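Blinded run. Sample ID left blank on purpose so nobody reads anything into the name before looking at the predicted structure. Input follows.
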Amino acid sequence: LSGLVAQQASTPAPTAVLTVEECAHELRVSRSTVFGLLRTGQLRSFCEGRRRLVARVDLEAHIRMAVEAS
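Blinded prediction complete.
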Protein backbone atom coordinates (compact mmCIF):
# COMPACT_ATOMS: atom_id res chain seq x y z
CA LEU A 1 0.00 0.00 0.00
CA SER A 2 2.78 2.44 0.86
CA GLY A 3 4.38 1.74 -2.53
CA LEU A 4 1.15 2.71 -4.31
CA VAL A 5 0.83 5.88 -2.27
CA ALA A 6 4.45 6.79 -3.05
CA GLN A 7 3.86 6.16 -6.77
CA GLN A 8 0.75 8.35 -6.81
CA ALA A 9 2.59 11.10 -4.95
CA SER A 10 5.38 11.09 -7.54
CA THR A 11 2.96 11.19 -10.49
CA PRO A 12 2.34 14.83 -11.38
CA ALA A 13 -1.24 15.99 -11.73
CA PRO A 14 -2.16 17.04 -15.28
CA THR A 15 -1.76 20.76 -15.86
CA ALA A 16 -4.76 22.89 -16.72
CA VAL A 17 -2.99 24.52 -19.68
CA LEU A 18 -0.52 23.21 -22.22
CA THR A 19 2.01 24.80 -24.54
CA VAL A 20 1.94 24.05 -28.26
CA GLU A 21 4.88 21.70 -27.75
CA GLU A 22 3.07 19.83 -24.98
CA CYS A 23 -0.05 19.50 -27.16
CA ALA A 24 2.06 18.14 -29.99
CA HIS A 25 3.62 15.61 -27.63
CA GLU A 26 0.23 14.48 -26.27
CA LEU A 27 -1.28 14.23 -29.77
CA ARG A 28 1.92 12.65 -31.12
CA VAL A 29 2.07 15.14 -33.99
CA SER A 30 4.42 17.95 -34.97
CA ARG A 31 4.26 21.52 -33.71
CA SER A 32 3.32 22.54 -37.27
CA THR A 33 0.30 20.26 -37.16
CA VAL A 34 -0.83 21.82 -33.86
CA PHE A 35 -0.38 25.32 -35.30
CA GLY A 36 -2.49 24.20 -38.26
CA LEU A 37 -5.26 23.03 -35.91
CA LEU A 38 -5.09 26.38 -34.13
CA ARG A 39 -5.14 28.36 -37.38
CA THR A 40 -8.23 26.54 -38.68
CA GLY A 41 -10.06 26.80 -35.35
CA GLN A 42 -10.18 23.04 -34.81
CA LEU A 43 -8.32 23.57 -31.53
CA ARG A 44 -8.93 26.57 -29.29
CA SER A 45 -6.10 28.51 -27.67
CA PHE A 46 -5.29 31.77 -25.96
CA CYS A 47 -2.25 33.98 -25.48
CA GLU A 48 -0.61 34.66 -22.16
CA GLY A 49 2.07 37.21 -22.79
CA ARG A 50 3.95 35.92 -25.83
CA ARG A 51 3.01 32.29 -25.23
CA ARG A 52 0.23 30.45 -27.04
CA LEU A 53 -1.54 28.09 -24.62
CA VAL A 54 -4.28 25.48 -24.92
CA ALA A 55 -6.60 24.60 -22.06
CA ARG A 56 -6.50 20.88 -21.32
CA VAL A 57 -10.31 20.74 -21.55
CA ASP A 58 -10.08 22.13 -25.12
CA LEU A 59 -7.46 19.55 -26.09
CA GLU A 60 -9.62 16.77 -24.63
CA ALA A 61 -12.69 18.12 -26.48
CA HIS A 62 -10.70 18.12 -29.74
CA ILE A 63 -9.68 14.50 -29.15
CA ARG A 64 -13.28 13.47 -28.39
CA MET A 65 -14.53 15.14 -31.57
CA ALA A 66 -11.81 13.49 -33.64
CA VAL A 67 -12.68 10.05 -32.23
CA GLU A 68 -16.40 10.57 -32.82
CA ALA A 69 -15.76 11.68 -36.42
CA SER A 70 -13.79 8.55 -37.26
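Unblinding after everyone has recorded impressions. DSSP finds four helices and three strands in the chain.
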